[in-house]
Amino acid sequence: MAAFASSSFLALSKSSPSSLSSKLGGGGAFSVAVSLPRRRRPAFVVLAVGGKPTVLVAEKLGEAGIDLLKEVANVDCSYNLSPEELCTKISLCDALIVRSGTKVTRDVFEASSGRLKVVGRAGVGIDNVDLAAATEHGCLVVNAPTANTVAAAEHGIALLTAMARNVAQADASVKAGKWQRSKYVGVSLVGKTLAVMGFGKVGSEVARRAKGLGMHVIAHDPYAPADRAHAIGVELVSFDEAISTADFISLHMPLTSATSKILNDETFAKMKKGVRIINVARGGVIDEEALVKALDAGIVAQAALDVFTVEPPLKDNKLVLHEQVIATPHLGASTMEAQEGVAIEIAEAVVGALKGELAATAVNAPMVPSEVLTELKPFVKLAEKLGRLAVQLIAGGSGVKSVKVTYASARAPDDLDTRLLRAMITKGLIEPISNVFVNLVNADFTAKQRGLRISEERILLDGSPESPLESIQVQIANVESRFASAISDSGEIKVEGKVKDGIPHLTRVGTFEVDVSLEGSIILCRQVDQPGMIGKVGSILGDENVNVSFMSVGRTGPRQHAVMAIGVDEPPSNDTLKRIGEVPAVEEFVFLKL
Ligand SMILES: NC(=O)c1ccc[n+]([C@@H]2O[C@H](COP(=O)([O-])OP(=O)(O)OC[C@H]3O[C@@H](n4cnc5c(N)ncnc54)[C@H](O)[C@@H]3O)[C@@H](O)[C@H]2O)c1
Ligand SMILES: O=C(O)[C@H](O)COP(=O)(O)O
């Protein structure tokens, strides 16, 4: 009599303490088992099942972007939501689009209960989005990094020139009926040194324009290539050299833990007396109290600020009220042209993500170029299915901690990006035994959180590297199997697959070579090799009208042990599986859902 490892695999995990649901060390989250076929979710991101997805646009977005969104989604434009209102609405939304004025906090992701799949930031800075929480919830974050670059650079130059010539103060004075020509004598820009702090998209455009004004431009950016700076006649220098030699300092770095309050008491003390500061980056890169002190002490002669630590700033904000400060309400990206461009850029990114495409502007997921994706597509399927098979082969015992994936390929290692494949194996390993939705965004995080270590190895094959991969092998160490024949000579559960004519196939189980296409579900059956076995099992399945899609037998030798792999289109009933187990030559079998 065969060891009966039935189709109740998924249901089993619901009640048994030694069940698979407790195997990945994830505790509570894993205890929710699924006994019915799960709704298959796309590998990358999203489309709402059964109808259009809903996109919440929480801040003003250009019409062109709204029109693009409306082609594929229900669009809810609700501005000025309180944090509570946002949390209430979000549970009904598949995507959210914001600018810098909305804080997308962990509470928002939690309130979405897994429905929110894309956050689109209509602009560059993503410091208002809790990226860690987004990643943990498998939510893709995309931004629109290019469309407002010129607008921000032009605003930086506008502030620079307006500050140097007291335009704002003089305007207010004239409007107040005064005519104070000697009070508003300015400073010239030509020949002065401008330090651009952050030589990225905006910083380099500011530098280019400042050169046109006759300024000597230096820049500090630890990550910018020197040749890009040289190409526009800018010298990259150290932080201290930049701030101590500049007449004007213009800030263009992102707000991160490393740049937070990067201008502070200590750094102001190193500056040239009478320096002028421009900030169109983020308020948080300046310690605002320290700037007030530096202005009062005359170290900083003037400041021009578009951004503030708290926006809008409080009415009694000393910087805003300071006579030597000019301020704008975060207008850097606010030109008609930039807003139109940003709206289109973010709408396209969100629509693409909702269709399950990998976004070129993803902030919290690895970029996989579309040509690589097309090539890897069948292997992505194979990877997920091998993960699903491998985890279903585990019997009770200690938790899964260690999975080894081996890729055999004629491609040089640098030419084979396995992040996507690893993510899909992780998805296959975790989803069948939990209620966690795993995608490219959260796969590594989810594996880590569950103490699941996935190591990767490559075997370099001779021959033509036309196909990216020859085979993928998944091995799970230190576990027992409910199908003993799945254990390799070295003691791990081992499954291996290939892609044949674009279709994933299972080609090895343990030490047995098989060949069954990975579609529908699979019965693995070990028996004593003898005539008539295929017919017997086939006719039991036929009795229940279960269609066999594929069948193959691998054996140790004639009349010895054989493993039969049977692909079935419909899941057989428990009775049918029981009848297969009762065939005298059958030693063990499992039914595996793909
Ligand atoms: N005021 C606005 O409306 C407005 C509009 C657009 C952009 N921004 C802000 O401007 C900033 C720059 O935007 P971008 O599009 O040029 O981004 P970017 O990513 O192209 O450039 C940022 C640059 O900062 C550099 N950097 C990172 N850490 C640094 C550090 N410690 N010191 C110096 N440089 C560092 C990076 O290497 C990068 O080159 C961002 O903060 C963005 O949010 C504001
Ligand atoms: O980071 C950005 O893109 C700018 O700060 C613009 O922000 P906004 O979209 O709120 O104008």
Summarize the structure.
The protein has 594 residues and is of the alpha/beta class. The chain has 19 helices and 23 strands.
Characterise the protein shown here.
Mean pLDDT is 87; it is low at 1-49. The strands form 4 sheets. Strands 9-8-7-10-11-12-13 form a 7-stranded parallel sheet, with helices on both faces. Helix 2 packs parallel to helix 14, helix 15 packs parallel to helix 16 and helix 18 (533-543) runs antiparallel to helix 19. It has 4 domains: 54-143 and 339-355, Rossmann fold; 148-327, NAD(P)-binding Rossmann-like Domain (Rossmann fold); 367-510, 2-Layer Sandwich (60s Ribosomal Protein L30, Chain: A); 519-593, 2-Layer Sandwich (Alpha-Beta Plaits), CATH 3.30.70. It has 594 residues and is an alpha/beta fold. The radius of gyration is 31 Å and the shape is elongated. The protein starts with a strand and ends with a strand. It binds nicotinamide-adenine-dinucleotide (NAD) and 3-phosphoglyceric acid (3PG). Nicotinamide-adenine-dinucleotide binds next to helix 6 and helix 8. Residues 124-125, 145, 148-149, 152, 197-203, 220-224, 252-255, 258-259, 280-282, 306-307, 330, 332-333 line the site of nicotinamide-adenine-dinucleotide. Its EC number is 1.1.1.95. Residues 522-594 form the ACT domain. Homotetramer. This is D-3-phosphoglycerate dehydrogenase.
